Amino acid sequence: MHRKRRSFFELLFSFLVFGILGYLIVNYPPTFNFNIDNFNLPVLPLFFILVFSAFYFLFDVLFASRRRGILIGGFICLYLALRYFGLTHPLFLVLLIVLFGGIEMFFVKRS
Asked: What pTM does this model have?
């Protein structure tokens, strides 16, 4: 079985991103804006980018599949976005699981 050389660095990068994400969660509220030369950058898109990249790299290493890393990272980000907007009914979680399970089945069946 062929082993990827860069998986160790991806795992380290994943832990680094989780550390940055933890720092962001502890020190900044969701409504905080970074001010850069009269430009307000909200912290929420940065949060979702960090969540996606952390879970993408982690599951890319665990499953040795970029596709599954993207699917799981996207699933977690979409679930957190739904929770942020107040859509907390359990049916939404079931629909997300069915949606991402169907996408995974589509790609498995196709290859």
From this structure: 0.87
